[in-house]
Amino acid sequence: MESRRNFLKTGALFGAACLTSPLVASPLVGFNREQKGMEDIYIIDASSGGDLFFLRIFDPTLAQTSYMVGNRQSREVIVVDPKRDMDTYLKIAEDNSLQITRVTETHIHADYLSGAPELAHATGAELVLSGETDPDWKYEIPHSPIKDGDKITMGNIILEAMHTPGHTPESLTFLVTDLSVSSSPQKALTGDFIFVGDVGRPDLLEKVAGQAGSQDRGAKQLYASIQLFSLLPDDLEIWPGHGAGSFCGKSLSDVPQSTLKQEKLTSKAFQFSNDVEGFVKYILDGQPDPPKYFATMKQWNRIPRPLLVEVPKRQKLSKSDFLTAQKNGLTVVDTRKLTTIIKGYIPNSLHIEGNTSFSTFMGWLLDYQTQFVLIADENEIEDLNRKLMRIGMDNMYGYVNNLQSLGIPLQQSNVISKTELKSLSNAKNIQIIDVRSKDEYQSGPISTAENIVLADLENSFSKVSKDKQVIVHCKSGTRAAMAYSMLKKHGFEKVKIYIGDLEGLIDHNN
Length: 510
Hints:
- This protein has 510 residues and is of the alpha/beta class.
- It has helices at residues 2-8, 87-95, 116-123, 204-209, 214-229, 260-266, 276-284, 294-300, 319-327, 338-341, 358-365, 381-389, 418-424, 438-443, 478-489; strands at residues 16-19, 52-59, 64-71, 76-80, 99-104, 126-130, 144-146, 151-154, 157-163, 172-178, 187-191, 194-195, 198-199, 237-240, 258-259, 331-334, 350-351, 372-375, 396-400, 415-416, 430-434, 449-451, 469-473, 495-498.
- The strands form 5 sheets. Strands 1-2-3-4-5-6-7 form a 7-stranded mixed beta sheet, covered by helices on one side. A 6-stranded mixed beta sheet has the order 8-9-10-11-14-15.
């Protein structure tokens, strides 16, 4: 319990949380909105009468959802798919006199570092994980296994495990029943099996974990799981593990909840009755390239690892500390806004703006062996620290917030206007690089632009000319600014950046 008390001292409660149904107006949950580093929180009472305590906690930085499910009478609760900065759940439990008795997850995650081992350790709760193992892919963390049909009981609140393989071999859906309301399940925590408007991709195990042949096998398993799941009651509420912005599917909605009836009517994945081959082709086609860090998460989430049960405090570096770190080759990551950075940045620094996608791009562009320093405003460092913590990127040496105090001459970005870009787009001594995704590029490129996806840029420097004038662009400037900083850092001198929109520039006939 000492680790739990220490963790609660670390401060900010993060996430967008809501109790799930607007039917009853006496919310159990309370939050301190004044806490430093906290984003907006939306609270709606979830209970439909009965004894069920049901809370959805949404992290917009990874479009990731976790849940707290419990019994209002016995005050016990289970946490499903927790994020790693677990003080959210500890604070909710403390504020509502709840006891976290179990921690579980729907599957072995690829997009974030699960907080399940940390939360179980900090609370003394039982760690319950899927026992539906694959010979080549299974949990190696000490845990209590749960299999298809097994039930977790909290008085008259029941979570029944349903094995729904496809996204991953061990994937479980938890069917939630409040017996004080009905003997039929009312909610399904589907994890990455069924999303609103989409289903989980079956190709990650092959693409990021090297399990050859698993994507075709997974697609067929996913098809079978959907057919079986379709037999459940139409009014079953679906509560998924992700929303729009996640790389765990290709067309996720930003709507937090659906019903089985609605998904059967509107989700394309449900429209392949008696057509398994058609489904396999559909589900494997057009999946986005997974971020590089997914491979690390897939491994770390199934094996024992050192646990981080507190949000770490990061050191504010002195001028001497920073200059020493820079001399020793530490990567300097500038998280300030694009409009600020173009006016002056530290030479050879990498620009990754500290926005909602910060952790995704950090995990995409840096490896886990790279030690780094952040440039960030004082009031943003805790939020950035938490975003990194959620993907296990803990190798931060410290941060600085005042570039002027460092005494380093700053460089200005070479920004090009739309008019200038238009005039140069057909010049022979110009190389225009579009760093958007392949799908974005194909939907409408500048006719003379070459597509080098941002995530592939570092491995594609041989395609970038050091003799021609290089111009990088994306759709809004955010990714182009990252690409610009990468090229400058690696010795490309003739680089300009276009940070405007593409109106009037793209070739709609391409």
